[in-house]
Amino acid sequence: MGSATVQISVVPKRLLKLSEAASYCGRSPNRFKAEVPFPPVPMPNGDKRYDVEDCDRWINSLKAGAADTDANAVVARLGA
Questions:
Q1: N or C: which end of the chain has fewer CB within 10 A?
Q2: DSSP reduced 3-state for 63
Q3: Phi, psi for 24 (deg, rounded to 5)
Q4: What gap in Å lies between CA 3 and CA 21, rounded to an integer?
Q5: How far apart are CA 45 and CA 60, in angstroms?
Q6: Where are the domains of the chain?
Q7: pLDDT at residue 7 above 70?
Q8: C-alpha distances in angstroms, 62 versus 15, 25, 56, 71?
Q9: Do 57 and 21 meet the contact criterion of CB atoms below 8 Å apart?
Q10: pTM of the predicted model, to two decimals?
């Protein structure tokens, strides 16, 4: 049997929709919106997108122990 080589080039997105950013960070969209300490980037057409680099910085801060662990603050943001 012969073999074939397939080359696929994928350009990763830098700006993500809410659902994509939440999935990228392993959170539900509602939980993501309540927990992230950074705003989305406003686009010229009015859409809002989350920067992957902001997501990465946030995740790195969680790993470093610099995250907001106050449960009341998270609950307050869920109601916002």
A1: N
A2: helix
A3: -55, -40
A4: 37
A5: 31
A6: 15-79
A7: yes
A8: 21, 11, 10, 15
A9: no
A10: 0.71
